[in-house]
Amino acid sequence: VMKPLFLFLLHTKNKVDDELEMTMVCHRPEGLEQLEAQTNFTKQELQVLYRGFKNECPSGVVNEETFKHIYAQFFPHGDASTYAHYLFNAFDTRNNGSIKFEDFVMGLSTLLRGTVREKLEWTFHLYDINRDGFINKEEMTEIVRAIYDMMGKYTYPALKGDVPKQHVDAFFEKMDKNKDGVVTLEEFVLACQEDENMMRSMQLFENVM
Questions:
Q1: Burial 157-196 (b: 16+ CB within 10 A, else e)
Q2: pLDDT (tens digit, 9 = 90+) per residue, 140-155?
Q3: Which family, according to UniProt (predicted)?
């Protein structure tokens, strides 16, 4: 399953309107050579990604509303706004309400081409809503519920009871090794690597990024 954010960048026109580009106050990315060294993309791939990014976001930055618009298009049968909000926050590593091309492509590189450990660390960061270095049940429930809402009733037509909560309870039972009510990064990574079903679930969630 290709990632919506990756597809979004590939839905680019063949030509960028240079005159429009010249008239706008733009953020230009750091040298592509530097990004090539920092990511798992080639310079040619970065050029394609940047063209797509600039086509969709001429100012050179993405805001939260853009994320919500992308996900509304890819998941028309559900409500993707909450998930898009949390995903935007995970990409917005500078906490300034906007995402530059560099931030975007660094996250995309991890999600598409990173090691299992790197992907799990990124996913942990997504679930750690308040960024205190731990995941609690409320945070995990928020994200899981947002994913169920986004996938919509056509994907999960006959949910009985509070399935997101049941899902999280089962996860927490396996992850919270010392039973202190929170999951650390190491507990999260270890549990996912030890449990094939949990790893598959995490990869399922990754596919909606």
A1: eeeeeeebeebbeebbebbbeeeeebbbeebbbebbeeee
A2: 999 988 988 888 766 6
A3: Belongs to the recoverin family.
